[in-house]
Amino acid sequence: MSAHPFNDLSLAALYDALNPWGPGxxxxxxxxxxxxxxxxxxxxTGRLLRxxxxxxHPGRLTGLDPAAAMLVQxxxxxxxxxxxxxxxxxxxxxxxFALAVMTGHAFQQLVRDEEIRxxxxxxxxxLTEGGRFVFETRNPGARAxxxxxxxxxxxxxxxxxxxIRVHHEVTHGPAAGVVGFSETLTRAGRPAPRTGHxxxxxxxxxxxxxxxxxxGLRAVARYGDxxxxxxxxxxxEIITIAGAAD
Length: 246
Hints:
Elements: H1 9-12, H2 15-18, H3 23-33, E1 37-41, H4 47-54, E2 60-65, H5 68-74, E3 82-85, E4 97-102, H6 113-126, E5 127-138, E6 154-157, E7 163-175, E8 178-187, E9 194-201, H7 205-214, E10 217-223, E11 237-244
Parallel strand pairs: 1-2, 1-4, 2-3, 4-5
Antiparallel strand pairs: 5-11, 6-7, 7-8, 8-9, 10-11
């Protein structure tokens, strides 16, 4: 798995500004509202679970993330949510969750085959009978990495009101579905930009299904966008809802 690019207190504090609430969050929040026990793998700043609890979700909510700095953000406000530092290698559950989710393209952080297999085995073990695992990956057919170029700069406002300019640049790939890229943040009033590096794996549906089958899971629904539109070769997302194989 790639090193977490936001395992730094100052960067973690910027995460929600850099990744504002969007249609994907609404999609997952609807699923969380309907489940009585939820495991959010790679929960980041925990905003999905915190919002669900603030809205009155009465069940068990557990967030798991390998970056301590992100969990510092998650714990602010002290909602009644269980925050766990680690990943599916260090934390295991048996038949405890009706829903497990991996949001924000976190599944693509699993670059090696063995990482994917281990994670899916742990998810299958953690689900209750009839439980569901929901995650999304960028559709490789849409070739999102072609838009990760330094000339495409977007601007956001940080929590302290400062302007932050962000651009991305592919550093290697795509090779065997693996793309490396950098993310550079330039903050107004700061002397130098900060650059982080990440690596993502792009998997098609055939590869995803082979990994799911190996873990005793199967896709029960797939969408190509957050409006639950059909998956097409050009769809931006591959959104998978998986359950135990028959």
